[in-house]
Automatic annotation (TrEMBL):
Keywords in alphabetical order: Cell inner membrane, Cell membrane, Membrane, Sugar transport, Transmembrane, Transmembrane helix, Transport
Molecular function GO terms recorded: transmembrane transporter activity
Record flagged with keyword Electron transport: no
Name the UniProt record assigns to this protein: Xylose transport system permease protein XylH
Compartments, as annotated in UniProt: Cell membrane
NCBIfam families on file: GguB (NF040906)
Ranges annotated as spanning the membrane: 12-28, 48-64, 71-89, 95-118, 125-151, 171-191, 212-230, 236-253, 284-306
């Protein structure tokens, strides 16, 4: 019984996501408005929320350092998009060189933020709030208040295409997506077996085999269902591959590397981490530099999706990323959270938006619902912290 409670506690948001998806499916079907799991809708859900997944991954690293956030990411998205529009569309510069310059711009902005936060010790809220206004203003100056479009096909190809390329028919698309999904499941299963075996060998506590492999089975089933649905439409979006690569890299970084684990140590107790020999300044600098780098990546994805660079791009993107992290289990105090949790939070937010939109719920009520979900997630975190301290 205790192990069941522990399993539910560790996977609360994942179970909540499944419940919400089933609930919306029932409501949408009952209202005769299609299906949440329609192949076209699933593809749109991925394309519409890819930027949230990318930004939430970077935002998590900032939050881990002590509940810090970056309010400037939406403005960085707008600025990088504006630069890309000027370089690629207006000046006709080489696409790959333009992308490189855009990514360097993101890194440079993050380095400026990181230096002021980590070494000058200006509070992150103030630095990124100033950045939110500054970089939005620069983006407006570059665009002169106008929208730049359209982008060339060779640029759009990198972010809006589908795998397989130039298929002979629907059968080829479905076969490809199922094969890719099966390979991902086998790799995930092998990694879980190796990790579990290693922990048992070292004498660590592990979940029961039923709990551990039951979770693997549920995730693999979800992957195969997703592969099937994508295969019934256009195939695997390139942007999904980009997101999966980012999530895999940062999951490994936070869980298996020393620099990644230092972020948790800083969030737990920065003074203790510093006394133990951790270079806290460097870790903070890295977290905020990385955040703006991923904001630049998100910008490249967004302008390809909209096929334009607009002054309004990136509006409220920082709130989506922050909300995804907290809903996904990141602590408002720092030191707790996973990339996987941030991904679940981002998907949860995307399903809420998509499901309510299909049902025709007023946009104002959608904001009310998302706000309530966020405050409940943070409230649960605070109450758990208090309960842990009292016990």
């Amino acid at each position: 019984m205790t192990r069941v409670k522990d399993f539910i506690k560790k996977n609360t948001m994942f179970l909540a996501l499944i419940f919400v998806m089933i609930l919306f499916q029932v409501l949408i079907t009952s209202a005769n408005k299609g299906s949440l799991f329609a192949p076209t809708n699933i593809t749109n859900l991925i394309n519409q929320n890819s930027y949230v997944l990318i930004l939430a991954t970077g935002m998590l690293l900032c939050i881990l350092t002590g509940g810090n956030i970056d309010l400037s990411v939406g403005s960085v998205v707008a600025l990088v998009g504006a630069i890309a529009g000027k370089l690629i569309v207006v000046m006709g510069m080489n696409v790959y060189l333009s992308i490189f310059i855009c990514l360097l711009t993101g890194i440079a902005i993050g380095a400026i933020h990181g230096y002021m936060i980590a070494y000058i010790r200006i509070p992150p809220f103030i630095v990124t709030l100033a950045g939110m206004m500054l970089w939005r203003g620069v983006a407006l100056l570059i665009l002169d208040g106008l929208t730049i479009s359209p982008f060339p096909d060779n640029y759009l190809f990198m972010f809006t295409s589908y795998l397989p390329l130039n298929p002979d028919g629907k059968g080829v698309i479905l076969a490809t997506t199922l094969i890719v999904g099966g390979i991902l499941c086998l790799v995930y299963l092998a990694m879980e077996i190796l990790n579990r075996t290693k922990k048992i060998r070292k004498g660590y506590d592990v979940n029961t085999a039923i709990a551990a492999y039951g979770k693997v089975g549920v995730i693999c089933l979800a992957v195969l269902v997703l592969s099937y649905l994508l295969g019934k439409n256009k195939g695997i979006p390139f942007v999904l591959i980009i997101v999966l690569i980012i999530v895999a890299i940062y999951s490994y970084f936070t869980a298996k590397t020393v620099p990644g684990r230092t972020l948790y140590a800083i969030g737990g107790n920065e003074k203790a981490a510093k006394l133990s020999g951790i270079n806290t300044n460097r870790s903070l600098f890295m977290a905020y530099t990385n955040m703006s780098f991923l904001a630049a990546v998100a910008a490249l994805v967004c302008i390809a999706r909209f096929n334009s660079a607009a002054p309004s791009a990136g509006t409220n993107y920082e709130l989506d990323a922050i909300g995804a992290c907290f809903i996904g289990g990141a602590s408002a105090y720092g030191g707790t959270g996973t990339v996987g949790g941030a991904v679940v939070g981002a998907i949860f937010m995307g399903v809420l938006n998509n499901g309510m939109s299909i049902l025709g719920i007023d946009a104002n009520w959608q904001k009310v619902v998302k706000g309530l979900v966020l405050i409940i997630a943070v409230l649960v975190d605070v109450l758990n912290k208090r309960r842990a301290k009292s016990s």
